[in-house]
């Protein structure tokens, strides 16, 4: 099968790419607006993009053409955000924060979650999350109806046991993130893992 995403099949781009490029990590992004109201929302078009400087990127898209979602709007206004990572225990709570709530209503309260102060940014982290990455906006690229936010990571929070204090490697028994799979509602666990040593 072949699909022409620049032509006759362009309307299938989301369904095809979001279903094929998997699993994708989930950026559970918390921000604040200028009134200090907290917003939290999950995005699966997300990844770490580099380490010198440490950068991450996620794509919140637009609510409507030219109208950013609350997350992107808050980042544009404040230049700050926190990427909280999602493990199995928080899957349902994360899903709850994807609900379309009235402006100003807290997704964290709606999902029974707790805002905790960050160290370097005004946006709070989600206290229940196993890992939180405090970020400042480096740039937001607008390509058609896509919006790509690139952030520099300044501070990492990790739940006790997630990172080995000697080797600084992640303990896979303590950190079980979930991934995004097929649209509209596919997810995966990351328990089934294997190792392959890189060739010399």
Could you list some keywords that capture this structure?
about 200 residues, mainly beta, 4 helices
How would you sum up this structure, described in words?
With 200 residues, the protein is mainly beta. It has a single domain (22-188), classed as Pnp Oxidase, Chain A. It is 14% helix and 34% strand. It contains 4 helices and 13 strands. The chain has helices at residues 13-20, 70-78, 91-96, 107-110; strands at 27-32, 38-43, 46-51, 54-58, 62-64, 67-68, 80-85, 115-116, 125-126, 131-143, 146-158, 179-180, 187-188. The chain starts with 12 loop residues before the first helix and ends in a 12-residue tail after the last strand.
Topology overview:
Elements: H1 13-20, E1 27-32, E2 38-43, E3 46-51, E4 54-58, E5 62-64, E6 67-68, H2 70-78, E7 80-85, H3 91-96, H4 107-110, E8 115-116, E9 125-126, E10 131-143, E11 146-158, E12 179-180, E13 187-188
Antiparallel strand pairs: 1-2, 1-7, 3-4, 4-11, 5-6, 7-10, 8-9, 10-11, 12-13
């Amino acid at each position: 099968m072949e699909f022409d995403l620049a032509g006759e099949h362009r309307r299938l781009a989301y369904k095809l790419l979001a279903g094929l490029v998997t699993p994708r990590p989930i950026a559970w992004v918390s921000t604040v607006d200028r009134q200090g109201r907290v917003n939290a929302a999950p995005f699966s078009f997300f990844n770490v993009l580099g380490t010198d400087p440490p950068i991450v990127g996620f794509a919140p898209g637009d609510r409507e053409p030219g109208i950013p979602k609350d997350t992107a709007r808050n980042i544009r206004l404040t230049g700050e955000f926190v990427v909280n990572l999602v493990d199995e225990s928080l899957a349902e709570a994360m899903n709850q924060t994807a609900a379309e709530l009235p402006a100003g209503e807290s997704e964290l309260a709606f999902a029974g979650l707790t805002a905790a102060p960050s160290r370097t940014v005004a946006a709070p982290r989600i206290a229940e999350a196993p890992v939180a990455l405090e970020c400042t906006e480096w740039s937001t690229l607008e390509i058609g109806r896509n919006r790509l936010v690139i952030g520099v990571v300044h501070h990492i929070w990790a739940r006790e046991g997630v990172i080995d204090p000697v080797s600084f490697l992640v303990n896979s028994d303590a950190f079980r993130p979930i991934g995004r799979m097929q649209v509209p509602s596919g997810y995966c666990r990351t328990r089934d893992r294997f190792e392959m040593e890189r060739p010399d």
